[in-house]
Amino acid sequence: MIGIFDSGYGGLSVLRQIRNLMPEYDYLYLGDNARAPYGSRSFDVVYEYTLQAVEALFARGCQLVILACNTASAKALRSIQQNDLGRLGAERRVLGVIRPTVEAIGELTQTRHVGILATQGTVSSRSYEMELAKLYPDVVVTAQACPMWVPLVEYCEFDSPGADYFVKKRIDAVLRTDPQIDTLVLACTHYPLLMSKILRYTPPGVRIVPQGELIAASLKDYLRRHPEMDERLEKNGKAQFLTTEDPQKFYDSATIFIPHTNVSVQRIQL
Ligand code: DGL
Asked: Does residue 70 surpass a pLDDT of 90?
C-alpha cells in the first residue's frame, strides 16, 4: 500500500488528487487528529509524532509513505530519511510535499515574486526559501503564516462567515509585504478547503496554487522512475483510513474532503 500521512484532514486533499490520477493503487491514510494541529509545535515534537506515524504505516504494510503535510515534511522528513529509514527497512521510502511543489513553482511565476501561505512551523523552518534558492535562485519569496486557517478546517468552519476575516487578513498581509507577487502557493494541505474564500480575497492576476495535483503528478513520475517500488505496491483500487481520534468524527469530515468515497475508518493509537 501507499501510506498517506497528515496531522489531520488536510492530507485528504492530496489523497483525492492522487487517487484521481492513480485510482488503481491501494492507499492507507492516517490522520493524527488527536494531536493536530502540528503547525505550532516544536521541531522535536513534530519529528517524534511523524516518526510514530511512519512506523505505524510501515507496520501495516505500507512500502512507501507520503508525508502529505508541509509541517511534517519541513520538520521531520530529512531526519527520518537520515536517522531512521535504515532501521525501519532500507527498501521502504518516505517522501514529502515541499520539493515537488518547489519544482513546479519556478515554471508558474512570471514576475519571479512568490508568496508562500503556510503554518507557523513551515514558515519558521524556512524550507521553501531554502529549496527555492537551490532550484530557482532568482525567485523572491515571501512566506506568510496563517495560524487560524488549519483550525477553521479541522473544526469544519471553513465555509462560515467568520472564516472570511482570517482569510482576507493573511492574503492582504502577504500582498502588502510584496505587491509584485503573482503566485500564491497554498503550502499547507488543509488550505484547499478554504479555496472559495481565498479566491474571493485574491486580486485578479494573482494565481493560487494548491499542492494536490503537483504531488500526484510527482508521485506518478517517481513510480515510473522506480519500477522496483511500483512492483511492490498492491493495485486493487482500495483506500482505508486510520485516525487517532474518534472514527465517526473522522468519517463525517472525511466525506466533505473526499465526497463519493467509501470511507471505512479505524482508530489507532500512536
Ligand atoms: N496540513 C498540514 C500542513 O500541510 C499542517 C496542519 C497542522 O498544522 O497540523 O502543513
From this structure: yes
